[in-house]
Amino acid sequence: MALFVSQSFARSLIAFFVTLGVFGPFLLETLDCSYLYLPLANELLLTSLLARGDAGAWWLLYPLMSGAGAAVGVFLLDLPARKAGEKGLKKIVDPGKIKWFTARLKKRAGLAVFVASFMPPPFPFRAAIVAASALQTPRAPMLAGVFFGRWLRYAVESLLIIYFGRRLVAAMDSRAFDYVVYGLTAVAVVGSLVFIRKWFGGSKPKVK
Predict the structure, then answer these.
(1) What per-residue string of b and e applies to 170-187 under the rule 16 or more CB within 10 Å gives b?
(2) Is residue 204 helix, strand or coil?
(3) Which residues have CB under 8 Å from 206's CB, separation 6+?
(4) Of the candidates 121, 127, 83, which has an alpha carbon nearest to the alpha carbon of residue 105?
(5) pTM greater than the 0.70 cutoff
(6) H or E element: which one contains 34?
(7) What is the DSSP secondary structure assignment for residue 120, as one 8-state letter?
(8) pLDDT tens figures, 105-130
C-alpha cells in the first residue's frame, strides 16, 4: 500500500508540474536547489514535457527556465549559509570535504560551482553550494556558475530525451519504472528531511 501511495503521489506531483508548462521546470529546480532534495525529478518532468514529440522549440526554453530556477533556489540557500559561515558549514559537511571544497573554490570558484551544477546525482551539489556560500564565495560568479551549469546539463538532457522519446515514453509506462519512482520518492523524502534537520536542528551530522 505504501509503495502504491508513493508511486501515485510522485506521478501526480510530476503531472502537476507539467500543467505549469514552462514554469514547471523553474519551480521544480527552485525547490530542488534550496531545501528540498528531489533527485532526477526535473529529468522526469522534462521527459514528460518533451518525449511525446510535440514540444517544438520549447526544448530551448525549458533548460533556460531550469537554470534560472536553480539560481533562485541557490540564492535562497545562500542567504543563511553565507551568514552562518564556516561554523554553520561544519554542522552539515564533513571536515575533509570542507578542505576539498575550499581548495577548489579558492582557485576558480565560478568554474567549481559550474561543474558541481552540471554533474548529476550522486555528486554532492548541495554540500558544494553550502560550502561556497559559507566560505564567502562572491555571489555573482556563484549564481552564474549555477545557472550555466544547470542550463547546459538540461539542454543536453533535453536533446537526448527528444532523440529517445518513444523509448522513454514506453519505459515510463512500464512496471519497472514504477519501482524507480518508489526509490526516488523514498530518497527525496529522506534526503529532504535529513538536510532540513541538519541545517535547522542544531545537530552536527555530516553530509555524505
Answers:
(1) eebeeeebbebbbebbeb
(2) coil
(3) 92, 93, 94
(4) 127
(5) yes
(6) none
(7) P
(8) 766 778 889 998 998 877 888 888 88
